[in-house]
Amino acid sequence: MQRKIVHIDMDAFYASVEQRDDPTLRGKPVVVAWRGARSVVCAASYEARTFGVRSAMPAVRAERLCPEAIFVPPDFVRYRAVSQHVREIFARHTTLIEPLSLDEAYLDVTENLQALPSATAVARSIRAAIRDELSLTASAGVAYNKFLAKIASDWRKPNGLFVIRPEQAIDFLTPLSVGRLPGVGKVMEKRLIEIGATTIGELRAIAPLELMRRFGRWGQRLHELSFGVDEHPVCAERQTQSISAEDTFASDLTLVEVRPMIAPLAAKVWRAAIKESRVARTVVLKLKTAEFRILTRSETPARAPGSEGELAGLANALTLRVGLPERTRFRLVGVGLSGFTDHDAGPQLEFGI
Predict the structure, then answer these.
(1) What are phi and psi of 180, to 5 degrees?
(2) What tens digit of pLDDT does each residue of 48-99 get?
(3) Per residue in 125-174, pLDDT tens?
(4) Nearest partner of 48 among 18, 79, 75, 77, judged by Cα
(5) Which of 13, 54, 93, 215 could covalently link to 103 via disulfide, CB atoms 3.0 to 4.6 Å apart?
(6) Which of these is catalytic: 18, 47, 63, 104?
(7) Dihedral over alpha carbons 219, 220, 222, 223 (to 10 degrees)
(8) CA distance 294 to 307
(9) Position 250 confidence tier, pLDDT thresholds 50, 70, 90
(10) Distance (Å, rounded) from C-alpha 41 to C-alpha 59?
(11) How far is CA 214 from CA 194, 195, 209, 210, 211, in A?
């Protein structure tokens, strides 16, 4: 049976929640970010986007682009609560939900719980419930696979619905830039353009063996995507791969000054880790220098860290392996856990609270 996939993407989610909850912000350029030289934009309203403001942009640049912008500090507790309500709406229609973030998810509605006649009807029902219950808007893409559904949800943003049917896929994809393909970043896009594949249609014309010769197994994947083929299922239960927390400093610090910052981050990571049913075996330390160079050091001890203190100690020990001059200054530090395995896959770990 051909899959029926819906991709739901909340419109300017954080900024829209702020505008909903504060009527004075409606219709105005809202930037969700802390003010300051080290801050980045978490979200921007569509009014701010017309000035070129985008997520992940330095806040100081956003302020230059849009001097009239209203900066609102993020409130992730509130955003998570709204996201949970959205997830409850999804769950009325299907059990196959793959969240990508707080504001977007894939849904497999090949068989839907409301007995609605089509995936398009499911998407309409979900969008109406989000509008009526949360006073927010969401865009939806409907297709026979995840790749196309995600492209479709972006096609008529904001507050839009777009459907790509199987018989339409080839014609729809042909004129699109290869940069629209999942996994094709700026570097890969440049490499594809160099071999004459500016559009997906041009990519499709290149023999699959030639793509595999140049890009290995990824070449086969590119060939399949150019024909609208994507067999990846919606994964309702995605296991945690890593947990991390990081902090950007108000001013650059030496490594000696950074070390006291590690314990609070380890505590935050540990609180998240003890909620997992699996054990993390690898401790990761992340540093970003004043010149924006990112360094990571990791350690997989014989025994997984068994407490918050052990995690902090292992992360601190990794600072001894940084290998940079003492005068080096850093703008960010992060602590993480990765390499999650089942309890019976190694030494047992008893979490303390």
Answers:
(1) -80, -10
(2) 999 999 998 899 999 999 999 999 999 988 999 999 999 999 999 999 999 9
(3) 999 999 999 999 999 999 999 999 999 999 999 999 999 999 999 999 99
(4) 18
(5) 13
(6) 104
(7) 120
(8) 27
(9) confident
(10) 5
(11) 12, 10, 9, 6, 5
Burial 171-192 (b: 16+ CB within 10 A, else e): ebbeeeebbbbeebeeebbeeb
Tokens 């849904």 found at? 107
Length of the chain: 353
Outline where DSSP puts E strands in the chain.
Answer: 5-10, 30-32, 43-44, 70-72, 97-101, 104-108, 138-143, 161-163, 242-254, 279-289, 294-299, 329-341
Other beta carbons within 10 Å of 199: 20
- Token reading at 125: 């029902």
Beta bridge partners of 217: none
Parallel, antiparallel or unpaired: strands 97-101 and 242-254: unpaired
Residue 135: CB atoms within 10 A of its CB come to 12
Contact 339/352 with Cβ under 8 angstroms?
no
Nearest to 45 by CA among 117, 131, 136: 136
Q: Which contiguous run of DSSP H or E holds residue 192?
A: helix 186-194
The CA distance from 227 to 26, in Å, is 42
Instruction: Give the separation between CA 128 and CA 137, rounded to whole angstroms.
Output: 8
Task: Report the C-alpha gap between 5 and 281 in whole angstroms.
Answer: 35
Q: Hey, what are 127's tokens?
A: 């969008």
C-alpha 245/C-alpha 270 separation (Å) is: 10
Strand pairing report for 5-10 and 138-143: antiparallel
Answering whether pTM is above 0.70, one says: yes
Is 308 one of the catalytic residues? no
